[in-house]
């Protein structure tokens, strides 16, 4: 099958999931075409993978270059030139509407192609609800030939806030346990924690919704009870505030801001506990990747997080902003070696239920269902893809 994947190329969950999905599909023999304004950060070379850059011309007339228009035109060209069978767009804004417009253009030329929209989170819970975008988001989701969401919670939120007339299938995010697994990096750990300190980590895009200052405040309390270090991985608008807070609290010497990192499996292999105090997570892919490396998780109990982080089994769930509770649970996990070992083992075992080999066939099955349904309902004068 020839599949077009439209995604954001950034470190965010939607781009990571789309990229990992495309690479897994290519390994199974599918021809995968990525369409984005930059090459996705995790995209690796494979004979079945193609990358098409969306070029946006910046004319003086435009205060904001019209990316959606450029993307639509790129989709038309890629579909036509490569005879794609299906489009899979990740993150509704503006990818679903661009796919719809491209489909309409192609139908005028006697071609037709189905598109699937995968909802990832803030495209529904934050940006999508904005009245500026809501009508277009609602329309383009309903025009999709199939809709998926990465968690049951996100599915429910979508139905709650939008007038969606179609079924939404939940296909959870997945993790490649061959890549994200514990490996022996003791030499790295000794460099960071020469006296056997516990290592905590947080990974995000440092937006307000991630509540990165809560990470610092939790760590301050853990640090006072258990010798420990904190790794802050990622970058974004809240990084400066977090750095200033750690100086105010006097814990900067034991916190490292590492910026964006690609070898996350190596960093997680030296981590003892993962902190994710977000205001909302539609799924929490970074937490799942940590668990796959045998790292227990302290997270909030919002969105899709309870679907992956099992209370008192793989870690603990707390209310948003419950600094005291998160710190107490973190100290409980970290204080005794036997307790920490038990949580590490259970985190790994639970992560295996989200292994890539279990989830990819669900997408392949959906693709086949959409293609079969599409081939049985030809539109007058329109050539279906073959």
Helix content: 40-55%
Q: Class by helix and strand content?
A: alpha/beta
For this structure, the CATH topology of the largest domain is Rossmann fold
Give the low-confidence spans: none
Question: Mean pLDDT, as a whole number?
Answer: 92
How would you sum up the major sheet? Answer: 7 strands, parallel
SS field, number of helical segments: 14
Q: What's the count of strands?
A: 15
Shape: elongated
Residues in β-strands, percent: 15-25%
What order do the SSEs take from the amino end to the carboxyl end, as H and E? EHEEHEHEEHHEHEHEHEHEHEHEEHHHE
Termini gap: 9 Å
Oligomeric grouping of the chains: single chain
Please give the CATH architecture of the largest domain.
3-Layer(aba) Sandwich
Characterization of this structure:
Strands 3-2-1-4-6-7-8 form a 7-stranded parallel β-sheet, with helices on both faces. It is elongated, with a radius of gyration of 22 Å. The protein has 386 residues and is an alpha/beta fold. It has 14 helices and 15 strands. It has helices spanning 13-27, 67-82, 92-108, 122-125, 134-143, 152-161, 186-192, 212-225, 239-249, 264-268, 285-292, 323-335, 337-351, 356-375, and strands at residues 2-6, 31-36, 49-53, 86-90, 111-112, 115-119, 146-149, 168-170, 198-204, 228-234, 255-259, 273-276, 297-300, 315-318, 383-384. It is 43% helix and 18% strand. Helix 3 crosses helix 5 (134-143), helix 8 packs parallel to helix 9 and helix 11 (285-292) packs across helix 13. The protein starts with a strand and ends with a strand. Strand 7 (146-149), helix 6 (152-161) and strand 8 (168-170) form a beta-alpha-beta unit. The chain folds into 2 domains: 2-174 and 356-384, Glycogen Phosphorylase B (Rossmann fold, 3-Layer(aba) Sandwich); 186-354, 3-Layer(aba) Sandwich (Rossmann fold). The longest helix is centred in the C-terminal third of the chain and has 20 residues, at 356-375.
